[in-house]
From TrEMBL:
PANTHER family: SLL0384 PROTEIN. InterPro entries: ABC/ECF_trnsptr_transmembrane, ECF_transporter_component. It is found in: Membrane. This is Energy-coupling factor transporter transmembrane component T family protein. It comes from the Bacteria. It is a multi-pass membrane protein. Keywords: Cell membrane, Membrane, Transmembrane, Transmembrane helix. The chain crosses the membrane at residues 20-49, 61-79, 99-121, 227-253. It comes from Microbacterium fluvii.
């Protein structure tokens, strides 16, 4: 049985968003392995002690690890050469500089990507929209429009499937895969525009565009636990920068 010190998975979506954003902002200022590794270790400790099962943690982390690996390989082979050159073939140059940069990039992608993946996969879009509009005071029309669009993403797959069935039934999808795909994509775009227009009219008729006196079905607020989650994100960012400065690896991005 795991004891959750801070249950970040139950925090307000806005608190999770701000926490992940603070970590990302702190890490983009420098490309060094110390700050990235420090942030990664602290994030792992917080996430594993927040009630996330180890198996679930590994499964959700796998896509980020794969993306980080391929990014690091690209930097390793084609990054800026410096120091001792270990291998060279055409445009591929593996040197001390590219190895260090690849390692730092690998850790940095993990440190920035893991909080986003682990914190946002199970978020209810409606809860996130409520928080964005009520806590961050983003324009209601923008938030509700984005929420409606997000809710309709699942329909695109069904529309694409039904379009394929209809075109095959009419005998226009038997030959020319590229031409068929282009025609079907255009038809899907037309469907999306029509549905968007109808949805906008329906939302306006039901008062979704009311401003400034609109009401919300569910109130979204930040609790003390949410403040702790935001503070943890800020603390991880500060400690990772402090560790890099102390180790002498901090290098402000763009500085020579």
């Amino acid at each position: 049985m795991t004891v959750a010190l801070v249950d970040v998975t139950r925090a307000n979506p806005v608190a999770r968003l701000l926490s992940a954003l603070l970590i990302a902002v702190a890490l983009v200022f420098s490309i060094d392995w110390v700050s990235a590794l420090t942030a990664l270790v602290l994030e792992t400790i917080v996430l594993l002690t927040s009630g996330i099962a180890l198996r679930k943690f590994v499964q959700r982390s796998l896509p980020v690890v794969i993306a980080a690996f391929f990014t690091a390989v690209t930097i390793l082979l084609y990054g800026q050469a410096s120091g001792t050159v270990h291998a060279q073939f055409l445009l591929i140059v593996v040197s001390d500089g590219s190895i260090a940069l690849a390692a730092a990039t690998f850790l940095r992608v993990l440190a920035i990507g893991l909080p986003s993946i682990l914190l946002f996969l199970d978020i209810d879009p409606t809860d996130l929209a409520d928080g964005l509009a009520q806590i961050l005071r983003l324009p209601a029309r923008f938030v509700l429009g984005a929420l409606a669009g997000f809710r309709l993403i699942g329909l695109l797959q069904h529309d694409w499937q039904y379009l394929g069935y209809a075109r095959r039934a009419r005998g226009v999808a038997d030959h020319g895969r590229v031409r068929r795909w282009a025609g079907q994509a255009f038809a899907l775009l037309v469907f999306a525009v029509r549905r968007g227009s109808k949805l906008a009219t329906a939302m306006e008729a039901r008062g979704f565009g009311a401003y400034p006196d609109r009401t919300w079905a569910r109130v979204s607020t930040l609790s003390r636990a949410d403040i702790v989650v935001i503070a943890l994100g800020a603390l991880i960012g500060i400690l990772s920068i402090a560790a890099a400065v102390t180790a002498g690896t901090w290098s402000f991005i763009g500085a020579r």
